# Entry
Amino acid sequence: MPAVFYLAEIEKALGSFDPLPLIEEGFVAYSRGQVVVPPVGEMIFEDPPGDVHIKYGYIKSDDWYVIKIASGFYDNPKAGLPSGDGLMLLFSQKTGLLDSVFLERGHLTNVRTAAAGAVAAKYLAPGKIRRVGVLGAGVQGRMQLDYLRKVREFEEAVVWGTGEEELEAYRRDMEGRGFTVRTTLDAEEVAASSAVIVTCTPSTRPLLRADWIRPGTHITAVGSDTSEKQELDPAILAKADRVVVDSLSQSELRGEVFKAVRAGAIGRERLVELGRVIAEERLRRASDEEITVADLTGVAVQDIQICKAVRLHLP
Amino acid sequence: MPAVFYLAEIEKALGSFDPLPLIEEGFVAYSRGQVVVPPVGEMIFEDPPGDVHIKYGYIKSDDWYVIKIASGFYDNPKAGLPSGDGLMLLFSQKTGLLDSVFLERGHLTNVRTAAAGAVAAKYLAPGKIRRVGVLGAGVQGRMQLDYLRKVREFEEAVVWGTGEEELEAYRRDMEGRGFTVRTTLDAEEVAASSAVIVTCTPSTRPLLRADWIRPGTHITAVGSDTSEKQELDPAILAKADRVVVDSLSQSELRGEVFKAVRAGAIGRERLVELGRVIAEERLRRASDEEITVADLTGVAVQDIQICKAVRLHLP
# Structure
């Protein structure tokens, strides 16, 4: 009989282990060609507008395969409903039998995305950080700080958002979790004061300009996961000493790299996959003066790894 | 909170209604172009051998969409496990939210397949039937009789299988359900005595020859759902007065029609979709002398309809 796990149990399990090592292993396996990730399944609805994505795959010679279904219906909040929903399914690669259903409502996607941000910072951010900048005062803007804290110490977060109200809510929340938070409506202020910047907005226009970015800065761009979304000026990627992507193949179709290559700002020969950066020390930040950019569009191997890890920590 | 339904509840709900009308409506909507069925998602494993299919879709302007995951791992029985597993997921087309998880272990696929066989016979089989022939003494060979009984009366079933033991088990089972059953190891005997023949084997070579088929016979071919599987001699389709398919597009890639067209036995201009046969009386059997063939490869709209129907009949 398959096990069915609800969000409260999943959250409890997540509190009992550090997902970063398994996420790192996943990226390494992916960059070594050991992960099978078939094309994403998709349904697009118009009235009301919504999209559904089915992501699935497996690590070769592993025991499991994972199927994730995630939806975004952007009129839902008008009816008091969350815009996103999601579940993950864990199956045996040896028998095909369904092992567990994770009714995670999108939370595991948020966690694996935040964990990937922390992994990128672990290998690319400068060693000493005073301030971390966050663009986007939503759920992911909160979780990125939570997970970044696992890999770097920092004194203060400088958070940019589009409204005083959401910024104030963010500050209250995060101070309750032990962070010192400064808020701003001016993205340049984030760039001027932060050694690490994480962008996690649904923007379709650049929010950061290249001439704002100081030497030594690391930027992780998390928000753009389609061909439309964009948070960084392509000139930032041109100026960067290292441009890292979670998936070379996905960067051909979506994310900051897609935009920058199309704009002629960078060539694809400059790109390195995160899994290789994790595995090879020479591909990581080499000095405190380098500018580094990690463009994360989200890969099914993260879903596989977070799902397996949670399963291991559930009754 | 999504509802989770287990097999016992699903079976109970199935006992409380007749799925045929909803399956018919589904085929009609499909043939009218009102159903969106994206390409099937697939993972193929080699050691041990197994395949996983993700079928999904929705009827336009309906309230729901459905995602089905079904697997076949053919070494499982050696370990005392069922070779197939499956679940269906029902979501709202208006919010994207997951409504219900059906942990149906493949049973709903069996039901919707058997119901489709009954629908094909309802519109294509001769009015009076004495004997029904079944090729394949497995689960589907049992269920086809159960559902056929909803649309036609008949005196006896003549069942072909590959071993005495499975045939004896079949006979015992089905006599317990009120059928009169004759078993045979000779497929010609089935053809010689039956006005309706249902084939439901995983065969990859023709089991029935064209010169065995008598005028007035209706054949529903259920077993072949890939480009490899085949149960009927292509000459049977050439000899038939009507060749009906559940899906014109799927028949380009799989099933008896795929084999017969590739062999040059029939042209695609002869094909008619089941949904049109249901909707238009002139496309149904016109006399007791016609030979008719229905080639069913299984369409996602059946999954959508059975899932919705079961949901309606659950608490």
